[in-house]
Amino acid sequence: MKIAPSILSADFAHLARDVEKVEKAGADLLHVDVMDGHFVSNLTFGPLVVQALRPVTSLPLEVHLMVSDPAAWVADFAEAGADTILVHEEATDHLYGVLQHVIEKGVRAGVVINPGTPLSSLEEVLPLVDQVLVMTVNPGFGGQKFLTPMVDKVDRLYQLRKARKLHFDIEVDGGINNQTVKAAADAGTDIFVAGSYVFGSKNVGDAMNSLREAVK
Ligand SMILES: O=C(CO)[C@H](O)[C@H](O)COP(=O)(O)O
Ligand SMILES: [Co+2]
């Protein structure tokens, strides 16, 4: 399993310090929640934050774009140093094209679906992507409760990947803690985003270890 701490729950006044902490404690990648106050009702980071983080960590940076016009931001985040750009299916009428744009920039391409969006809406783009992110909360805020019905969606996505002989990583985001992680793992998740559970703990290493322990 891979763990991707979400810096949404880090201490923004000491962002580099918190990133260093999770890197030393064995995080596999960093999850950057980009919100524009329009696609979701919260406002967070722009490309300058990704650019500032790039030299302070060797962890891969994945950018979760919760913005209304994802196409407008792909180039800036790619140039800022994003390793993966995750685009919401609900944010664009031109999903295939935006993902092509990400790939052309030499960045791993991922697609994201909200809890209410069916897997069928991804049918045509699955062969294109390196990663599929299943939201296990409604996007916008950290610290929300894991939506248990999404476990079945992950399971169906896992079966679909096998049936179509595809190779994308399956990721979950929202409400992941030592109580919820196992169900998602058993359904076939490869990458677990965890924000409040990791950064809200006294010891980020213990928190990540408890996630790894819980799936054993
Ligand atoms: O995309 C997100 C919210 O839209 C965050 O990545 C997610 O909520 C992580 O936070 P937590 O682990 O606290 O639920
Ligand atoms: Co996220």
How are the SSEs ordered, and which strands pair?
Elements: E1 2-5, H1 15-24, E2 30-35, H2 47-53, E3 61-66, H3 74-80, E4 84-88, H4 95-104, E5 108-113, E6 131-135, H5 150-163, E7 169-173, H6 181-187, E8 191-194, H7 196-199, H8 204-215
Parallel strand pairs: 1-8, 2-3, 3-4, 4-5, 5-6, 6-7, 7-8
Helix pairs in contact: 2-3, 5-6
Bound molecules: ribulose-5-phosphate and cobalt (II) ion (CO).
Features:
binds ribulose-5-phosphate, 216 residues, TIM Barrel, globular, 8-stranded parallel beta sheet, 8 helices, Aldolase_TIM, single chain, alpha/beta, cobalt, binds cobalt (II) ion, 19% strand
In short:
Pfam families: Ribul_P_3_epim. Its EC number is 5.1.3.1. This protein is α/β, with parallel strands linked by helices and 216 residues long.
Instruction: Sketch the major β-sheet.
Output: 8 strands, parallel
CATH class: Alpha Beta
Integer average pLDDT:
98
Annotation field: number of helices: 8
Low-confidence stretches: none
Task: Indicate the overall shape.
Answer: globular
Helix content: 25-40%
